[in-house]
Design brief:
It is built from 13 helices and two strands; from the N terminus they run H-H-H-H-E-E-H-H-H-H-H-H-H-H-H. It has 309 residues and is mostly helical. The chain has a two-stranded antiparallel sheet with strand order 1-2.
């Protein structure tokens, strides 16, 4: 009598392995990037900006503060008459290489943007969690502070703080962080108000979990998806605000190169030397668009409805 061999079914056959799930996740991300070409372009552009900012001392061909008055307002792709230097983006009114200043300005803008978001996002998320889950009076106090913050004009707030503390990069980061926490707090509070009525939160409360454990272990992971998307848009907003304050003379002070400061210095030469204002303006535009493309893609890929497809 022939005995038929039967194949045993193991647990690995029923439950996908971690490596398989990770492979599917990366494959899904790759397909999503192919479908969202603008997001892929934005990621590549933003990475190039970050690499250039980190290695600015290697990428920039010249000292961004070096002045060659005899070669002032040299057009793009031109050569200096005395030094023979090649200027990819031309020179400004003081004979400084615009390409080198744009690269070093990227370092300033990205440092200020990332630092301000790194401060405002955790503060806003924490206050949003506390406001949504705590008692009514705590919620009212935090939200009234947020309302006052939104009602107060940002430029006026920045002028007051900068005039008291003096313009500097750390003070500029403080100003931007103060202005950015409200967005995270209000979004997180709305999510918490909905989730705290759900069964898994009520079960955690019935089992005796402390408030801090409920906030950090049960509510926080469930609000991270919209926060991640907000961080990307917040970064673009911080870069624009930093450029605006530097343009008004309230941000990074000369001779430190910054995109907003370069735009401020180019106001008198828009009609005679267009490249002095176009180059830093294009850098701001490309960076902000790249971050926004990244944010749109993250919003789509983190959407639960898209994950179910």
């Amino acid at each position: 009598m022939n005995t038929a061999t039967t194949s045993s079914i193991t647990l690995e056959d029923l439950v996908p392995s971690t490596a398989t799930a990770r492979t599917k996740g990366w494959r899904r991300i790759a397909h999503s990037l192919i479908a969202h070409r603008l997001a892929a372009i934005g990621i590549i552009t933003l990475l190039a900006m970050m690499i250039a900012a980190v290695f600015a001392h290697l990428v920039a061909p010249y000292d961004p503060e070096w002045q060659e008055r005899a070669e002032r307002l040299t057009p793009p792709l031109g050569f200096g008459e005395e030094s023979g230097r090649f200027y990819l983006m031309g020179t400004d009114a003081l004979g400084r290489d615009i390409f080198s200043r744009v690269i070093y300005g990227a370092r300033i803008s990205l440092i200020i943007g990332f630092s301000s978001v790194a401060i405002s996002a955790p503060v806003g998320v924490l206050l949003g969690l506390v406001s949504g889950y705590s008692s009514r009076w705590v919620d009212d106090v935090i939200m009234r502070i947020a309302d006052v913050q939104l009602a107060f004009p940002f430029i006026l707030l920045a002028m007051v703080i900068v005039s008291v503390l003096s313009p500097s990069i750390p003070n500029l980061i403080i100003v931007l962080a103060i202005s950015g926490w409200v967005m995270y707090a209000r979004v997180v509070r709305g999510q918490v108000l909905v989730m705290k009525e759900m069964e898994f939160i009520q079960a955690a409360e019935a089992s005796g979990c402390s408030n801090s454990r409920i906030l950090l272990r049960h509510l926080l992971p469930n609000v991270l998806t919209p926060v991640i998307v907000l961080v990307t848009f917040g970064l673009a907003s911080m870069i624009l605000l930093e450029s605006s304050l530097s343009f008004l003379g309230l941000g990074v002070q000369p001779p430190t190169p910054s995109w907003g400061g370069m735009l401020n210095a180019s106001r008198d030469y828009i009609s005679t030397a267009w490249w002095v204002s176009v180059m830093p303006g294009a850098a701001i535009m490309l960076t902000v668009l790249s971050v926004n493309f990244l944010g749109d893609w993250l919003r789509d890929i983190l959407d639960p409805k898209e994950q179910m497809k």
